[in-house]
Amino acid sequence: MNDTPMNTGGAGKLVFLDIDGTLADERHIVPESAKTACRAAQRNGHRLFICTGRSIPKIERDILDLGFDGIVSVAGAQADIDGHTLFRHLVPADAIDAAHAHFAEHGILAYQWQGDDGMYISQGYARYLESKGTVWNSGEFARHWHLLDDIDVPEGSTLGQVLCTHVSKGSYFAQPDTDVTFEETRRALAPWFTTVHASYDRISPNNGELLINGVDKGTAVRDVAARLGVDIADTIAVGDSDNDAAMLKAVGTSVAMGNAIHGIERFCDIVTTDIHDDGIANAFVRLGLI
Questions:
Q1: Is the pLDDT of residue 191 over 80?
Q2: How many domains does the chain have?
């Protein structure tokens, strides 16, 4: 990392932090250096937002308890401050049904939909959770998991028509023998979704997040900044993967983690160290936040 200090101005900044691979590691643990840096930045008058692809029910309580000033969730489809929802976008019914038809046609078995009342998962996704030792139907998240096969669909309706009042984003990962590539899925679903790489690369390289067209972390950052009266030049974002690209391109100053993937470091203003090497703390020092 080039550790030359970077002047981002003296006014309080609006800082957006991705969770997976940025704030928290592969075990969902936030390094102590990151916790300390976040608290110090807030004491210095900066406002910190989580900006994640997860829905709020999928964020661990110990992360929420760090005391962020707000949360942008489900990949930019929802934003909340102090328990008040600033905005919330929902996936249309026909989009959900189109995705399910595509998954069925190509044998994609593991997928989920996320919203502010929980995660709606396929049997294939449930089997994945069980295979890695996760007891998905007990513990902290138990009441927020819903099996898609258990949802009652009234006669004459579709699953999409039932889910469309609940969910704001989809995601999937494909098994090795799937007959369709990420790019083919992206093109097939383009009328309904913007498809970006998800955080499932360790499970399968053929994976994606299904974002509502015109809604992403970048639009959310701009909307939140505007509602709070903050100039976009006074915004900062830190991320590590393709699903952070829109956010990183929207803000005044963009930071790629040292463990970044999908080439996002090529268009970021600075690259900090790895998440296991005090990446957040080093970025905050470099930016003059602490």
A1: yes
A2: 2
